[in-house]
Amino acid sequence: MKLKYTETMLPTFGYVTDEKGSRAMSGIRAAAHLRELKRASPWLLMKAMDTPKGIAAMGDQKLGKQSLPAVSFNDGGTKFTILFESKTHLPAAIRTRDDDNIHGDSDYDLVLGDWKEVGGVKIAHALSYQLNGVEVAKLTYQELSANPMIAADAFAAPDAVKSEAKAPPTSNVPYQWVLRRLFLTRFVDSDSILYLPGGGLKLVELAPNVQHVQGGSANNLIVAMKDHLVIIDAPYGELQSRWVIDAAKAKYPGKPIKYLVLSHHHMDHTGGTRTYIAEGAEVIVPSPDKAHFEKVARAPHTVAPDELQKKPKPAKIVEVKDQMTLKDDVGEIRLYNIPNPHAEGMIIAHVVKDNIVWVTDLVSPRGAVQRTEGTAAVGDALRKYGVSGATIAGGHGTTAKQADIAPALAQN
After folding, report:
1. Segment 313-357, tens digit of pLDDT
2. Are 348 and 336 a contacting pair, CB within 8 Å?
3. Cα(195)–Cα(180) distance, rounded to whole angstroms?
4. Which candidate, 336, 326, 353, 348, places its Cα nearest to that of 393?
């Protein structure tokens, strides 16, 4: 699906215009864009030159295999590290130190290249955005002009937008979540982060011992066993994990969280993993993901300290190669690592007594479920393991009856 829209940024707010009209951006989206506009603008260097008190010398900084001279520049509460090419003295990269739910303290770089003269000055035409050296977005300028004529009302915001506009926050902005979800066109434009304005997380009871956490951009499943709890998936970050942990304990008093089962490694389903480790839960992941999540557990989070950073605790991570069963006197959960087109390593979970199957991404119940390679992979797994008549609980969306979506689950 292609999305076509225009983003307009003003110094104190931003808004988005598409075929439905114009609407104010969330404060966090506006804050992220304002920071990135600074990063990509030649005026950042001009401002640094005009504000010598904000500049500090630094030792050489690594950029790939290079070691480059650098200075830091503090502007409006943001510390930019500016790396320079040794021969040309042009900026090689503009860096910030960001928090990432998965990778922890991270270098976020705008790597500049393909410098060409425009209006008597050199402008980078190739912009590569990189997190710890991995490119997450790329922008190429085909044509640039200096001092173009701009209509006087080009940035005139509609009155309705002005009345709803949110001031960009100056602290606790989840920059990496905003930017990378925008790159993926899967961003919930809300200062609530997890859900749309006016929404909220909620427990939907699928059985007395099974709660489906819905209302956010991604879901969890809570399963109460005899004397402990099992949580499936850890969307977003500590914000959702803390809500789910508190809600689970309130619903099932006296039962600690013993296991966190992660369906697969993608950030929107695992960003809150560390909160469960801090809670003392054992983490169960599909093969071959154990090494990845051991790294997640060790990653420093000093930019935005989380519970595990504040109170370190060793992580116990177990890998499911083919299948595993969690069972006690009152319940049984069968975990299957299934072949699929979405990710290398994908667990679906069958809560046997209540015949509920947890599926993330391969099936997302949001109205009609169409047949895809992902839904067919789920159907193949359900037939292989003899599961029929089940309720499908989605990692996105809500629920669906296996019988009702049988055409989508048809054999490959």
Report:
1. 999 999 999 999 999 999 999 999 999 999 999 999 999 999 999
2. yes
3. 17
4. 348
